[in-house]
Amino acid sequence: MKRKAYQERLKPMTGELVAMARWAAKTGQRIIVLFEGRDTAGKGGAIDAVADKLNPRQCRVVALGKPSEAEQGQWYFQRYAEHLPAAGQIILFDRSWYNRAGVETVMGFCTPAQTKTFLAAVPAFEHMLVDDGILLFKYWLCCDQDKQEERFAERLADPLKRWKLSPVDLAARQHYAEYTAAREVMLSATHTKAAPWTLVDFNDQKLGRLTLIRNLLDRLPDTRVAEQKFDLPPLDHAPLEERYKKLKPIPPLNGGKHRD
Which residue ranges in the chain fall short of pLDDT 50? Predict the structure, then answer.
């Protein structure tokens, strides 16, 4: 999809997302959206498209790194539970507890017994979230291997995107089929009535973002809430100016060289 066509279609959806956030704040609704998929599938771009115009104090992105030694000794869901939404909040998980069913399983970072235990526990965990009133949406962003290879090459060639590559990402290139098998096991165990999965074609990332956002908006309740009206009465004085002249240099500490 061409960028201009994408932006034209995204603009009205962005307005709907802003209205949705206003509704969530007004009603105290709690929303979780999980973005899962292979490396390079487009999770970051999809999250940016959702969160771009929303208040970052209301809509938070959670992207947890490798668990610490202390976290490895916790209940597996514990470090994710810390980031669950309060009233009126929208939480976007850039990867989630499903790391255990994906990269941890395929790359050998957990045992088969741990994977089995996790898959048995997920439906109950998510059912508790939904029963407590949280709106939970789970998206898997689908990406064929030829597209994945193109995107890896693009990241390698672009200094501004190279940070996205890690040794684990590069090693995972050789395990596309294993990731597919692990994904199918995961879907079979965790695609439930209370918390179903939605698979979105992200071979065209722009089209994928539009499809995902449209699906998310269509699955929410009626989110129309009257927008608060504000007036801007004229000032009762002439506009003031703020000083912008350069401040006097501060002497360096401990006799060190001053760094401008």
Answer: none
pLDDT at 257: 62
Return the CATH number at 100: 3.40.50.300
Alpha-carbon distance values, 86 to 32, 90, 99, 100, 119 (Å): 11, 8, 23, 25, 26
Whether residue 163 contacts residue 156, with contact meaning beta carbons closer than 8 Å, is answered with no
- Output the 3-class SS for 91-139: EEEECCHHHCCCHHHHCCCCCHHHHHHHHHHHHHHHHHHHHCCCEEEEE
As a whole number of angstroms, the distance between CA 250 and CA 228 comes to 46
Q: Model's pTM, two decimal places?
A: 0.89
At residue 74, the 3 state secondary structure works out as coil
pLDDT, position 168: 83
Q: What is the DSSP string of 20-40?
A: HHHHHHHHT--EEEEEEESTT
CA distances for 153 relative to 11, 159, 168, angstroms: 30, 12, 16
Range of the domain at 12: 3-219
Q: How many CB atoms lie within 10 A of CB 90?
A: 24
